[in-house]
Amino acid sequence: MNILVVDDFKSDREMLAQPFRADHDVRCAVNLDEVNQVLENWWPDVALVDAMFPKKRNGSPVFAFEAFLELIEEKRAINLEMPQVVMVSGQNEAAKKFDEVRHWLTFGRVADVIPKSTADVGVEFFQAVVRLRVEALLDRQRWRGIQNNAQSTSEWFAHLGIITTSPRVLELRTHLIAAARSQACVLLTGRMGCGKELFAQAIRKLARPGKKFKEVDCGIIAPELFEAEMFGIKGAKPPNPPFVEKQGVFEAVGDGTLFLDEIHNLKWEHQAKLLHVLQERKFRKVGATDDTQFHGKFVTATNRDLLDEVEKGAFREDLYYRIAVFTIHIPHLAERTDDIPILAEYFLNEFVRARREQGQSCPDIHLHPKSRALLVSAPWKGNVRELRGVIEKTAELALVECAEAEAGVVIDPNLLVKYNPLLGPPTPQITTYDKLLETSGIKVQRWSELDEDKIPAITEAITARLSGEGKIQFATMEAALRPRDSDAGESTPGRVRQDPATIHCLKALLYLLLRTDNRATIQDFLEVLGLKAWAQRKKVMNVLAAQEPSLRVYSAFVKLPSQGRQEAQLVREMMKPKDLLDPS
């Protein structure tokens, strides 16, 4: 990372630069002219800037901090991010500019302020404080880099802790980014258990990573304690009646994110007080005579129709329009059934990981494909929360029932219904099919159900789509993929190796053959293969790209693009297009 230090005293420059010289690129400047010169061919990630320094060579120190900010904003190219600017102040002049500094902090032009008086305790202590603050800022930079470089919208959501491939959720990306960047309030709506807290956390990660996050359930605050809990209590000394000083939620959250869940439960009189805080951006402690500023991000959530509550007279109309500037509706699980198998496997993996972290032995646990279909057919009135509960309960009971299993535990439909009778019959009626798969004659609802049991059907469907040299090529590939007898060194007739990479590659090849336009995006591959784990995805992508030495047999059929390209295409080196695709 690049770090810029601006200070006109040599000893102070070295004190600020020394903690970072070993593992960062550090550049120093004495005045604004030197800063301008440094920025000609170099750009900082973090800038440590003294409040007082000369604007020009041989000039007198002045409060040049605002001029530095203007220079940075002027020099920044479109493709460069603004650096995290830290004011390092040792002058009273900075205190006189308090209102300006507070404004810069509030709106992100300045990331932090560190007083040089900290060095009075000791230079090493001061340097440790500076390094901790800067490392926190660099972590935020890295987080934003991860977000910006995510290869797909699904991956972008995964970085935020939201596991999804549903278009209904993926289309919320723009709304989340806009809501996070804005100073306006955000209202999250959706049924109970759909993940509103998770989305509130996502907004916090996007808007104010590293800052505090406070959640308040408006339904459990005692009405008589609302002001004390939310605004705090101002302590009083004798001879006045004694009050114990208490920090409220608004004060505790600071410049972080405050999340008020189930806001429809607020009493009418408390709604008025909350409206005042949001309008004036300040609150008053119980027993205080002056106000305290509130600089935090405000997010609310409800599972009710607030406009309906307004019509009933249960919710203030003016408060509704104040908190609903950005309204984001989170679809419930019945509206995004594609996510159910993915979430179920994710919860199983989390369950296994937690057991192992506690020092307990735990085999891998997976869902049978028919169990996934059974979960998809369930109503899930309790949404994601109910699904998680069912998965964790079933996994725990399955471990008891399959205590002797070492290779792994598979939760089949009978086991699932045995512990969760409300899920219905173990064999759900499948009425809709993937359009491409239906043309292949394979009767499954989605690509994720193509597992080792379906290998014969997959190979048969591939052969049916090939003609001429294509069939010869595929027969060669099948022979290469058959397990070999360790003694005779001969392949086993009629069987294809059943490792995950083979299954995924067969699915990818079938998908390409079923497409009439002969083209597919990387995102299409990821969705069809259902690959979420990074290591697994990398392995399969290497296989498909013919970069895996053990499985180069696929290179005759499939070629993924190099990094930066948007499309994958069929390789035509070993056969003509008309030979690969069925002319009919």
Here the CATH topology of the largest domain equals: Rossmann fold
Instruction: Describe the main β-sheet briefly.
Output: 5 strands, parallel
Number of strands: 21
% residues in beta strands: 5-15%
User: What is the CATH superfamily label of the largest domain?
Assistant: P-loop containing nucleotide triphosphate hydrolases
The CATH architecture of the largest domain: 3-Layer(aba) Sandwich
Q: What is the count of helical runs? A: 26
Average pLDDT number: 78
Detailed description of the structure:
The protein has 584 residues and is an alpha/beta fold. It has four domains: 2-148, Rossmann fold, CATH 3.40.50; 153-331, Rossmann fold (3-Layer(aba) Sandwich), CATH 3.40.50.300; 339-423, Helicase, Ruva Protein, domain 3; 435-580, no CATH class. The chain contains 26 helices and 21 strands. The strands form seven sheets. A five-stranded parallel sheet has the order 2-1-3-6-7, with helices on both faces. The protein has a five-stranded parallel sheet with strand order 9-12-15-8-16. β13 (282-283) and β14 form a beta hairpin.
